[in-house]
Give the backbone structure.
Amino acid sequence: MKKTVLIFGLLMANVLAAQEIPLNAKEVIKSFYTEALGEQQGYQWLHHLCTEIGPRPSGSEAANEAARWAQLEMLQAGADTAWLQPVEVPKWHRGAEWSKVISKGVTTVLPTTALGGSVPTPLEGILAEVVEVDSFEELERLGRAGIEGKIVFYNTYMDHAMISTFNAYGGAVKYRWAGAMEAVKHGAVATVMRSVTLLRDDLPHTGAMSYGDSEQKIPTAAISWQAADKLSQMISSDPTAQLHLYLDCGVQGTAINYNVVADFNGSVKPDEIMLVGGHIDSWDLGQGAQDDGAGCVHAMQVPSLMRQVGYQNKRTIRVVLWANEEFGLDGAKEYARWAREQDVHHWVAMESDGGGDVPRGFGIGADEARVKMVRGFKELLSPYGINVLAKGGGGADLGPLRGHDDFFIGFRPESQRYFDFHHSARDNIDAIHPRSLEMGAASMTALYYLLDNNEDE
């Protein structure tokens, strides 16, 4: 029996060596979760970011305050260097905003928010009849004869039947992004849309829109789910119903915000960089806890947890917190430009931009060999809920690095409730469960620990 156990142990050691997994990997990984769940450093960081600094819209001083704070925290956590990279970004202004529908002598107020990038209405607002459409195809069928001089109401939905809420979001967000540029072609004077969410709430959800190359720009806003139901019902019973829309908003020039770049140097291969990041900006309706304060503290915790448990990373761990993801990826583009100019390559790059719920897995954007390598870690990660190691992954802020680097990972937490909070006044610190947040940070750290011990070239 002892001989059999010895032979089995030797076989297992050979298997682990072939996979380049340390023999004590289980104990080290366990220590990451123990440290994260016990100390909850990430939640403490996020609480400060949300409650002491607050919303961090593009061009704001709050975004700069957050960058300076993160730089200091990374230095205190043991970073060898931490610096701020200036980025020119749009300066977004949001003031008063409202809409109300007038039908059969009755006025009903609708919770309303300007979409990011919208031009303002005139001082008196815009008062016009409303035409409801459920697709760009219907907009085209109505044409100028049915649209001109009216406010277009995009009564469009995220597909609730899709299990992947991010896929459902992708199908609906095109109306937010391109709704105004398409409607103005037919003479619309403004647009409103059903908020891009699966929650049947009464809070509007914002997000970026675009005018493309349109010479004429019209105001565009989102109304809450419940408001969209009301508006649709009122139009159905009274086709002459009018909407009065008022938006005090707009891009007011540019300002300087900052990327945060912090390096925890590797002891063996310092020139091989393992980037991990999130975006430090947020929309202005809430505190930006889920989007993407959670991703920032996830990234900050990866090297911090390694140091806390006594693990010395072999490769350099680089934390990057990008400026202005929401308004056009300016921070990611500037970082990628700098990396190309300096011929800085990343051995691997991982982003967290899906919220702070419990971890489900990772998406892997890489060649088959590296996908297979990461999937080989599943047995060690699955006890912590990491069961999805899917091909294809990364994140919006990693996009500008594609073609320069070729190994990308996207952290995938549970997403069923993510769009309840996304871009709304609900995205505050109380949207975050501390243990769920910490499980995500520990999972990302565990994966980077395993990758750090892989000799893949």
